[in-house]
Design a protein that fits this description.
- It is built from seven helices and 13 strands.
- Helix 1 packs across helix 3 and helix 2 packs across helix 3.
- The protein has 264 residues and is α+β, with helices and mostly antiparallel strands.
- Strands 5-6-7-10-9-8 form a six-stranded antiparallel sheet. A three-stranded antiparallel sheet has the order 1-3-2. The protein has a two-stranded parallel sheet with strand order 4-11.
- It folds into two domains: 8-74, Arc Repressor Mutant, subunit A; 79-261, Chorismate lyase (3-Layer(aba) Sandwich).
- The longest helix has 16 residues, at 8-23.
- It is 25% helix and 34% strand.
- Strand 12 and strand 13 (258-261) form a beta hairpin.
- It is elongated and about 70 Å long.
- The N and C termini lie far apart (52 Å).
């Protein structure tokens, strides 16, 4: 049966949802529930509920998600991020009109892995600080970030407040500023733990961004692996035809994947 906008009862449900939004009782990313749960909550039939939700979905206020963690949600705005972005995430979110928050999940001091030592150009037994954080945009989980830093460069890093911009902290306390950034971007599936952190279904697509940041002398100081919810972030890249010093290049990687390289 074709869904319609319904009558007075459906209109009342719509007004109640919009009132909850304006009062802050519902926020972007909030889950309203399944169709059965919402029908019970608003004490209406499921047919009336569908009629109430249809205009809100068409207006972009609501979105439906499938899977075990699915249901109807208040739509959260997309976050736009540039490829090889050098601004910290809090500054990026603020410039886009979003609120930001950070939860530190874990910190560690340990020997670098093979991949970390190669990216940071240090000995395999050299120690690194590892910081894993959960980032929020507009109160909704956006990404899980893992950053590695060379302990010799930032000796007391783990004693500092880590809930804000790490790039700002690195600049102010250690004089480390990213002059060049290289990022590799690919699509992966969320593991059970990642899905729990990001409040999404297991195996949902994520944008995985592996990043190496270097200072003005060309020395790497950060190796990072960030996982962004694919339904919350949009990547953009601007390439100038006259910027011959940083051309776009393509090559076939060791695993057979074609890499498109944009320097920033």
């Amino acid at each position: 049966m074709e869904e319609t906008a319904g009558g007075a009862v459906a209109e009342d449900v719509r007004r109640r949802i919009l009132s909850m939004l304006s009062s802050g009782a519902l926020r972007p990313g909030s889950r309203l529930g399944t169709e059965r749960e919402m029908a019970e909550r608003f004490a209406v039939s499921r047919a009336t509920l569908r009629s109430a939700l249809l205009p809100l979905s068409q207006a972009g206020v609501l979105e439906r998600r499938t899977g075990r963690a699915g249901g109807t949600f208040i739509r959260a705005d997309m976050v736009q991020r540039g490829a090889a972005e050098q601004a910290g995430l809090p500054a990026l979110l603020q410039s886009g009109g979003h609120t930001s928050a950070t939860k530190v999940l874990a910190t560690d001091r340990r020997p670098a892995t093979v991949a970390e030592s190669a990216a940071l150009e240090i000995a395999e037994d050299a120690e690194v600080f590892v910081i894993r954080r959960l980032r929020y945009a507009d109160g909704v989980p956006l990404s899980v970030d893992m950053s590695c830093f060379i302990t010799e460069q930032v000796g007391d890093l783990l004693e500092q407040p880590l809930g804000g911009s790490l790039y700002e902290l690195l600049r102010v306390r250690y004089g480390l500023v990213p002059a060049t950034t290289n990022e590799t971007i690919e699509v992966v599936s969320a593991s059970p733990r990642e899905a729990q952190w990001l409040d999404i279904a297991h195996r949902k697509p994520l944008l995985a961004i592996t990043r190496v940041a270097r200072d003005a002398a060309g020395r790497p100081f950060e190796y990072a692996y960030d996982l962004f919810r694919a339904d919350r972030v949009r990547l953009t890249a601007t390439v100038s035809a006259v910027a011959h010093s940083h051309p776009v290049r393509e090559r076939r990687a060791d695993d057979g994947m074609v890499e498109r390289i944009v320097s920033a």
